[in-house]
Amino acid sequence: MHPDHTPQRSVEVHQPTPIPSPVVHSAPVVPVQPGTVPTVASIVLPDGRVVTGYAIDPARPEPVIAKPAVSRTAVNVALGGVGFLAVCGGLLLLTSFIAALTAFITQLITLAAVIFGGWIAVQIFSASGHREGGTTVNIRKAVIKRNKFFG
Q: What's the distance, CA 150 to chain centroid?
């Protein structure tokens, strides 16, 4: 837009209100002497400069508290308990494996019986349509005497 066509707006200027700083009462500075006067060390660098400073003692770890001795009996009982639990878990897994294997074998036997039974049923029902094998009896030509058939 062109500046001639912009509407005039009144502009308000807000001045920030300064926040008064809190009054800080400083404690008097009292120089404290260290317990011991540290030694000043000076080191000469290879280029000839000298660096001077205080030597700092490395931090020492706290002494390790001696652990009480564990009796051999307690260790043997604990290891025996762990071994017993491992054996029980192994027997549980073995029992579960044997049960699963038994169920699998049972299903295989059932499947074999169903397939073999189906094969036998097919042989029986398909034999009625075939004339090649088996015995054929012609009832019209049979001679009946005293309720016995003679062919």
A: 83
